[in-house]
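[job 0417] fold request received: DNA damage-inducible protein 1
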Amino acid sequence: MKITVMTTDEQIITLEVDRNESVENLKALLEIESRVPFQQQQLLHNGKEMKNFETLSGLGVADGDLVMMVSNTSSMSSSNEVLNPDGSAVNPAAFQQQIRNNSDLMAQLFQNDPELAQLIIGNDLNKLQDVLRKRYSQRSELRWQQEEEMALLDADPFDVEAQKKIEAAIRQKGIDENWAAALEHNPEAFARVVMLYVDMEVNGVPIKAFVDSGAQSTIISKSCAERLGLLRLLDQRYKGIAHGVGQSEILGRIHVAPIKIGNNFYPCSFVVLDSPNMEFLFGLDMLRKHQCTIDLKDNVLRVGGGEVAVPFLPEKDIPRHFLDEEKQLQEASSSGTGSRGSSRAAADRSNMPTPSGGQSSGSAHAGLTHGPEFEAKIVKLVELGFSREAVIQALKFFDGNEEQAAAYLFGG
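[job 0417] inference complete; emitting structure tokens
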């Protein structure tokens, strides 16, 4: 249950305690929270003094009740001080040993503040002092916020600035409640999401493939293509610049090479980028061609309509440099592209190169994929039996080149 303790200096402390907790243990907890030594505390509930040997349930203390703490300052002396003004312990070793010797208090700490509990049973006194200072700082900030809220309640209702602060405080309270609800009901939202990788073989060489349904094309880096023995098949007529988060040079295209997923072989084509951050990305074009399903329930990639199922790799099996986001961001700032930028760049067909080797620009592309002429090409290809959506995608893929779009559609 939760109880609120108010001190004589108007400090408000909220504690989570057991109904059968003793008053003695409650005072030990309050010694940590309030910096008032155990011997100087006098607790009152409904005007009645709470004795050390009594229990909270025996005194009728219920969930949400208020307990008053009176500090007996007459017996205060410098030798009895437990905590410094900054919240750290005067004698950290003695403080640590005192808490260790109280099994009930340790149980409470493990339940309510496991980080502090681990430091109490550990040997790092410097870190213990740091955490005590941190807890004191947090309590001071909370106390300041509470005092400010109390002051706002008494503010002039016609004071515009005061009303703005009240509005901000109400909004922040809603945010904090939403955050607390998310921690309780959706804690995984605060964890880092590991991207989807699977084991494949490309041209007979094992590789960790990044599965990304958000990228239209399957991408391979120049260094990876060279390592796999595929760079000799590079068609440089498909040179260009891919724009995404930053930009990366498109070196060309490898039209077909065998990939092995599970025990089956599949033909695959690649866009080759001059990007150090992403070795191999299995994009939407091949996912659709080979009827793949990203099955997150069973955590597998199903290929060929389900004939093959390969598991997504756990984090421990993914190379560290694939997961080093900070390193990739640093590389992105120096090279002008990032791993996600490369994948999205391939997906941005408004910047794909023309087969003649020229580089498309945004303004040049606009004339090829809009207007009556573009609509006429759509109508002509739709009459051949393809869906309008597929036709538009193919035309944009080839910068409005009707013949290449048709060949692509027939080949798919």
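[job 0417] notes: Residues 73-80, 329-368 have pLDDT under 50 and may be disordered. The domain at 197-351 is CATH 2.40.70.10 (Cathepsin D, subunit A; domain 1).
[job 0417] exit 0
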